[in-house]
Amino acid sequence: MKWVRGVLPPVVVGVVVLVAWQLTVQIGRIAPFIVPSPLAIWDEMREQKLNIWTAGLASGENALIGLVGGTVVGILAAMLASRWRPLAEVSVPFAAVLNALPIIALAPILNNMFETTSSIPRRLVAGIIVFFPVFINTLRGLREVDPIHRELMTSYAASTWTFARKVRLPGALPFVFTGLRQASSLAVIAAVVAEYFGGLQNGLGSRITSAASFTAYPRAWAFVVGACVLGLVFYLAALLLERLAMPWKSRLIT
Amino acid sequence: MTAVAVDKVTKVFNQGRSDEVVALADVDLVVEDGEFVSLIGPSGCGKSTLLRLIADLIPPTAGTVTVAGQPASTARRKQEYGIAFQQAGLFEWRTVLRNVELPLELRGMSRADRKTRALEMLDLVGLGDFTGHYPAQLSGGMQQRVAIARALAVSPPLLLMDEPFGALDEMTRERLQAELLGICAKTGTSTVFVTHSISEAVFLSKRVVVMSPRPGRITAAIDIDLPSRDDAVRQSEEYFAAVTSVRRALRGGTVPA
Fold this sequence. Notes:
The complex is a heterodimer. Chain A is mainly α. Chain A is built from 11 helices and no strands. Chain B has 2 domains: 1-80 and 159-257, Rossmann fold, CATH 3.40.50.300; 83-155, no CATH class. The chains are: A mainly alpha, B alpha/beta. The A-B interface holds A 146, 148-149, 151-152, 154-158, 162, 166-167, 170-171, 173, 246-248, 251-252 and B 52, 55, 57, 76-79, 81, 83, 85, 87, 89, 91-95, 102-103, 106, 134-137.
């Protein structure tokens, strides 16, 4: 019952919006290059489902590799930076500059650095975009140690490494996952959009641009829906991982 | 052998700076084996600082601290004491059982042994049914009992406690006081107990050490001789007399008897 009450409102709103959209397009005779109707998009999705699936897999693979790579590097960098204060002082502004840089703008440059058949540029773009939120959040988490925990570990004569492993890292996990949740959607966006700027053309991004350039707008929208679903899958996977990794939090919710 | 010997210890924070604070000046304190000693005094009198010096969490500016016949730093490295603070300070990502196991884990005790030992300690504080819970699922009093079980887990010859019952309600507090006394009597542990509650200090201690601030120093040490240590004693003549003498010492002798 509680479940129904949580799910029902968004579903109802979603259906109402779709129906209103369909009616507006049909009655208002809106040209498909402005907005195609949901039914037209749905027909294209059914027709293109194999293409959406394979392109989604390619983009998903790129996003996943970028996400994992960026996360691992981000966490390791945060661990190093939290260990040596001077390093943190240097690396935080550096990371901020990296973040302010529109990473997507690097895509054409990276595409030219590698062969056109290489998947590396898209994965690099995703990885760099993922790095920042993971790094900053993890660093904050690693620094926020309860003073009592610090004193306790001193009283146990624990080594720096033991302290990091038993207290700092588990204590930082909620922060790591805050970063990872942001990063999961960003990774998909990066992997899809990076294809707009060349490189290997087998993902969702290239399907969207090519469909649009052939004025097949409903088809372009079908791939956009695919990208949307892919982003959602990544986000939900990150949420699930968060709950699995922190049973002491999730057990309070249920 | 003496459990703790503090010899002419001075502690100055921020030495040589404009915000220099003399937290303790020339303090001497001896705790005998198996003795329960309370440190009492107003905020800022240095009682917590003194406890942290004994625990070797901070170094003294001058003087020496000896724990179980060895320098405090050696004693800390050998885990010669257990410690508990006003906040339970449990690790929220570990279950109750694994929290109590942590000091044993760091001592390199085997998995099976430390589980047996931790279960034993949790039974002692009456939490045998909560081993699989996470700290956030427990009440404040229960968390504090876990912290005490953790402090006792390594069977330390010395127990250091910094207002461990300060954040608890009166009823829980009195029950835990009785439990603590029982545990200390059973295990023969020496205890240094920081508090700002006169009744708590009197009920628990063999000796109450009264401190005064600016600079922190010991102004009196009052031996407490009660006929028993159960709830009935809280209503006895001797108890009230002891409370009065501690209160008088705290106020510098201005309270009439």
